Every structure is written in structure tokens, then in C-alpha cells.
Amino acid sequence: MIKTIYRLLIELTNRKWSSLLLQKFAMSKTSRLLIPYFIKVYNINMEEAELPYQAYPTLHQLFIRRIKSEARVIDADKFTVVSPVDGFIEAIGKITDETEFLVKGKKYSVVEVLGSASVAAKYTLGTYMVIYLSPTNYHRIHSPVNGEIIGQWELGKHSYPVNRIGLRYGKDPLAKNYRKVTELKYLGGHLAIVKVGAMFINSIDYTYKSTTLQKGEEIAYFSFGSTVILLFEKDTLFLSDPLTKTRQIQMGQTIGYIR
Q: Which one from 139, 142, 158, 190 is the annotated catalytic residue?
């Protein structure tokens, strides 16, 4: 019953008009009045932001804020892989022969997430990681490795919630949501960065200047909270030990080593 009601409410509100209405408000000067409350409610660390909160003209600009370069340390070792975002690691695991992985007790097909059976095949028996970004987090996305963009595409039309309630009760949120996929070639092989749109606002904007990326280089940003899925090929990533002890992670933090 809870699932049915939850999904009905989302279907009724998750439409183009409601998305545009929310987006228009967040980008309006009026939304600036909510900035102090937004910071307080979500306990946002403004000490690491590039600008004081009074300098942001809209709620949207606060949300996509950049942080000071010294706020994150990027491991320069060419054999390390770092987190592309700040967030909470919802799941880590191995991609099965059936190209499905488990998230919050549900199975999701890699083919559905990537939109291509041929691309998904190369990640069979590899490693996946799902990182959830809450409104508290810094929402810019960075390259986890030194590499070259070899493919980029988008999939899906609507976005369902990608918070923990959405992952539990939603209608295959990570498979059906609007998403942009970036595939990189790097020292270890190939990896896919799947950027999943959040409820109501699907905006995922690219910011990179070249297809050749340096580790830690900014590549995109989310408008409002969302999720990133990382997919690695078989025998290309050795996970960092600390990930078994804590799931809170920051952009630039080492998540593994290239085998």
C-alpha cells in the first residue's frame, strides 16, 4: 500500500510543468530569501565555499557552488582512483554474469542503466559503486582518474527520487531516471560514470573543456541532489580498505587502486 501511494504521488507531480516551476523558483531572486534556512536545515559547510552565502543571488547558485581548491586534496598517484563527488556510498559490489547489481535489496540491470548491451558486456564481473548526494553535499562532479572521454550519451525522460525513500519505494529509480553517461579510457581500462537525475529537476550540466581529463578535474554539476554510479571493468580496481569502515566520502578521496 505504501509503495502504491508513494509511486502515485510521484507520477502525478513528476512532470515537465512541475519541474519547470520548481526550477524557475530556485533560479529566481526571491529564492535568495531561503538561502539562510537552506544552509541551516541541511547543515551546509559554508567555510569551504568559494563565496560567503550573501554573495549567491539564488538558491540554485548556492546549490551548485564551487568550493575552495584547498578544501579537497586530490591524490596525484597515477595508480589511484578517487571519488568523483561528495556523498554517501549506498552500495559496492561485483557485477554478475547476468549484468545485474544489487542496490537497497533490488536488482538493476547494467544494460538498463547504460542503455547498451554491448557497452554493458565489457563491465561483466567488474565492480560497481553507487554514491548518493544529499542536499548537504557539494554537487559538482570531477574525474576519478586521468583519462580520455570515449563516449557520452543520455537516457530516460523522468526522474524519480534517488534518496533512500526513493530507492526503497520508487519504480526502478536508478534504471528509469533521466541520466547522462560518460565513458572514460584510462590506465586501468574503461570506466563508466552514470549521473542520475534527481526528482523534478533533470539538469546535469557538463563543464569540461577537453576530452582529455586530469584526475580531480571538474566535468559537470547536478542541479539538486542526485546519485552517481561508477562501473569498472573486471580486474581493474582494487578497493581501498577504509571503504569497508565508513561510507561517507569526499571528492578526491581515494576509493581504490588500479590493478
A: 142
- Claim to verify: residue 136 and residue 217 sit in the same structural domain: yes
Task: Quick: pLDDT tens for 172-194.
Answer: 545 557 788 999 999 999 999 99
- The verdict on whether 142 is a catalytic residue reads yes
- Is residue 206 within 8 Å of 225, Cβ to Cβ? no
Gyration radius of the chain's alpha carbons: 18
Torsion of CA 62, 66, 71, 76, to 10 degrees: 150
Of the candidates 19, 159, 223, 226, the residue annotated as catalytic is 226
Give me the catalytic one of 83, 86, 158, 159: 86
From 63, 80, 111, give the residue that closes a domain: 63
Are 158 and 198 part of one and the same domain? Answer: yes
> Is 19 an annotated catalytic residue?
no
pLDDT digit string (tens) for 119-159?
988 998 999 998 988 888 999 999 999 999 999 998 876 54
